[in-house]
Design brief:
Elements: E1 3-7, H1 11-23, E2 27-31, H2 34-44, E3 48-52, H3 60-70, E4 76-80, E5 84-85, E6 88-89, H4 90-97, E7 101-104, H5 109-123
Parallel strand pairs: 1-2, 1-3, 3-4, 4-7
Antiparallel strand pairs: 5-6
Helix pairs in contact: 2-3
């Protein structure tokens, strides 16, 4: 199974995603915002990241940008309960910034597990090389 980093400021969402992914065998690390998530990348070396887009400290768009600099091939799933603000389509923008997938919250467990499986299968296992 994979090392998955979940970044979301909503504790119940973060905890439920973490519990679900741990239950199916993934090694999961949780972070409350982008800065906390980025800080754990060198030691945890995630093979996939799930990040919320609207968070305090460091929002998801900046988090995606930094993750792309650190690990260009890292699969990133962007999630957001708010699709649009005025003319900005957050999910579309996340994709243009480098998210591998962008999903609207709430995400069904079956859909999320399917997307994770597809992304991990597409790239194969990632090495444990330092970031």
């Amino acid at each position: 199974m994979a090392r998955i980093l979940i970044i979301d400021d909503d504790k119940p969402v973060r905890d439920s995603l973490g519990a679900m992914l741990s239950a199916v065998g993934h090694d999961v690390r949780l972070a409350a915002h982008g800065r906390e998530g980025i800080d754990c990348v060198p030691s945890f070396r995630p093979q996939l990241v799930i990040t919320d887009l609207l968070m305090p400290e460091m929002e998801g768009m900046e988090t995606i940008r930094i993750l792309r600099q650190l690990q260009p091939d890292l699969p990133i799933i962007a999630i957001s309960g708010r699709e649009r603000y005025r003319e900005i389509d957050y999910l579309d923008l996340a994709g243009r910034l480098g998210a591998s997938q962008a999903l609207r919250k709430p995400v069904s467990p079956a859909r999320l597990l399917m997307v994770i499986s597809q992304l991990l299968t597409r790239i194969g296992p990632l090495p444990l090389a330092p970031v």
